[in-house]
Amino acid sequence: MKLRFLFFSVITIALLAACGGKKESNSDTQKNVIDLTANDQMQYNLKTIEVTAGSTVRVNLKHIGQMAKNIMGHNFVLLKADVDLSEFAAAAISAKDTDYVPKSKEDQIIAHTSLIGGGESTFVEFKAPAAGTYKFLCTFPGHYVTMQGDFIVK
What we know:
Elements: H1 2-18, E1 31-38, E2 48-51, E3 56-63, H2 69-72, E4 77-79, H3 85-92, E5 109-112, E6 121-127, E7 132-137, E8 148-153
Parallel strand pairs: 1-3, 2-8
Antiparallel strand pairs: 3-6, 4-5, 4-7, 7-8
């Protein structure tokens, strides 16, 4: 029994020494996981999302409603700073073939999910931009009025 304890102690010490005995805190290794839901009443469960600049962000989007994608589809679109939300949403209305993410405005997008219907889930993973406040929205026609929020990067 003592020999087994000694063996595991030596292994543990060796592993800690190899890792420097430190937990990584570099922003490249941080991961922010955001669980965002959307429903049939055109609402996200979050109006504000906060993350750390430079960290990896994963937004898990789940449509907790029951309506089909063509009737009540939802997505998550994160816009770059200073993008006009209304202008972007107006362009999205005519982008049905690309899940209401307008190709003409791709340069204004940081990240986005696919469009999903009731009971479906999707996600997007990306590196958080520089510190600041950004807007996120659902681009399904008319949804951005109630389905938008602030994406705050610290």
